[in-house]
Specification:
The chain has ten helices and two strands. A two-stranded antiparallel ribbon has the order 1-2. It starts with a helix and ends in a 7-residue tail after the last helix.
């Protein structure tokens, strides 16, 4: 997500995440999930069957790692936001978590303007979501300026108080 917010491609961000995960013991399941998503991209035309194979189906399906693999795959192969979200929803596995993660990735990658206007018009809590998205982008791209040597911006601290009372 950070890589996308900073203008990097999703593929590049996934590869950077793999490099970071490689040095942390116990992160092999997440790294394997990300690698499965990258490998699936090279397996031909995207379709719901491939997403189902990544996320699993039936009992025991939908582990966090499997859902991550499916969501990353959907975002990587998406022709556009609508295609990626439909792919993340229309498969035989757990579609809600897959679509939620894929939607976050696609949103960070393409922005609000890539969504169909009719979808935006019906979005519950849209003002709050927009404020959080803008603040996330500011934190990811201008964090040091918000948390400089003189302290954090008063407006920022009012919205996002620090833990520990400081």
């Amino acid at each position: 997500m950070h890589a996308l917010a900073c203008g990097e491609s999703l593929d590049g961000g996934v590869r950077r995440a793999l490099a970071l995960l490689a040095v942390w013991p116990g992160q092999e399941p997440m790294a394997e999930a990300l690698q499965r998503a990258l490998d699936a991209v090279r397996q031909g035309v995207p379709g719901p069957e491939r997403v189902t194979r990544l996320v699993g189906a039936g009992e025991g399906a939908g582990t966090a790692e499997a859902v991550l693999a499916g969501a990353v795959y959907c975002a990587l192969v998406a022709e556009d936001v609508r295609h990626g979200l439909r792919l993340a929803v229309n498969h035989g596995g757990p579609s809600a978590p897959t679509a939620a993660l894929a939607g976050g990735l696609l949103g960070a990658q393409h922005g609000e303007t890539a969504l169909p206007p009719a979808w935006l018009a019906e979005l519950e809590g849209r003002p709050t979501i927009l404020e959080l998205a803008d603040d996330f982008a500011m934190e990811m791209t201008q964090g040091p300026a918000l948390h400089g040597p003189g302290g954090a911006s008063p407006g920022w601290l009012a919205r996002y108080p620090r833990s520990g009372g400081s």
